[in-house]
Amino acid sequence: MSNPEDYTVGWISAVATEYVAAQHLLDERHPPAPRMSSRNKNHYTLGKMGMHNVVIATLPLGRYGIASAALVAEEMMNSFPNIRILLMVGIGGGVPTRHDIRLGDIVVSAPGNGSAGVFQYDYGKTIQDQEFLTTGSLTPPQPALLATLAGVAARHVGQGHTYEQTINTVLDNNPRLRSNYGRPDLASDRLYQSHVVHPADDDLPCDPNCGDELLISRRPRTQLEDSPAIHYGLIASANQLMKDAVARDKLAKQKDVLCFEMEAAGLMDNFPCLVIRGICDYADSHKNKVWQGYAAMTAAAYAKDLLGEIEPWQVEQEARIVNYYHEGSNVYNEGSNFYNEGSNAGGTRIEFGGANNGFQVGMNHGQIHHRQG
Ligand SMILES: [Zn+2]
């Protein structure tokens, strides 16, 4: 039996594909934890990654979205009270129009421009007017983790990364994974112009229904460029899947969003959390499942790389995440002022359009939490 107190890193996978990728990047697996409270309904995988003892949890089958992620995280922190770093690792839809983001690339939530790295949004009443409501902002990762991100990014500038090798080793050791988790043929990375909408019948393939002449052609990456590439910036989270390229571009333009996903906001205002997303589609109407397994792998490979950069003593210096939950966010004083602009937990209404760079324009429908203690 493993001792729950030994685990300092929490890792949340939303869907089965992400869970499989995470499990296979562990360096060793540990036996299950002893019996837990009857409240716990999560499935956990315990093991070692680099120098860290890691708990991986997944959302219950078929229960995706923000509320489910929140519940899984809460139960995890209660069952493994020594967790000090929380990672949410999985797949998401990329925004290819402002940055050169391609399928299999990795987006890492990074604070900037008054945002903590992830914000929650919802559609307004009139989707045709492209009105979005931003409803909050995630608690950012601890400063030590952000410093580690900077270290990883700096290393990649000169040396690049070896994720392809990491993934190939997993596939060589687990041949059953190869067909769904290996890198798909590059020809299946198809990016349509934003106005091209997939036929209402989802089952129809893009080719020949969407028109090859409307694809955006991109030059191949060179050997001196990282592939997959890693992008640091803002992630938008909602309970609804983003599948509209025009809406995607509009929100991306306003806030420089790099990625859309469906779970991270569940941890909003509760825990500091780093979100890592492998890009499996372009958040448009042309859904393409072929890249999901590989994108889950690249996100997990980045998380492993990150954990290799941070020392166990650095992790031990962070507060237990369960304390954030029990005490509100007050334990997170240091540096939090920087992020508080725009992190209203209530329902701050934002109307897009015009030169609105910031947050909190309009009326507040919800409570405002003041984080500074
Ligand atoms: Zn299509």
UniProtKB/TrEMBL annotation:
Q: Name one GO biological process term.
A: nucleoside metabolic process
Transmembrane segments annotated in the record for this chain:
none
GO MF annotation, one: catalytic activity
- In terms of superkingdom, the source organism counts as Eukaryota
Task: Give residue ranges for domain Nucleoside phosphorylase.
Answer: 34-290
Q: Name one Pfam family in it.
A: PNP_UDP_1
Q: What name does this protein carry?
A: Nucleoside phosphorylase domain-containing protein
Q: Which organism is it from?
A: Penicillium salamii
Q: Taxonomy-wise, where does this protein's organism fall, top ranks first?
A: Eukaryota, Fungi, Dikarya, Ascomycota, Pezizomycotina
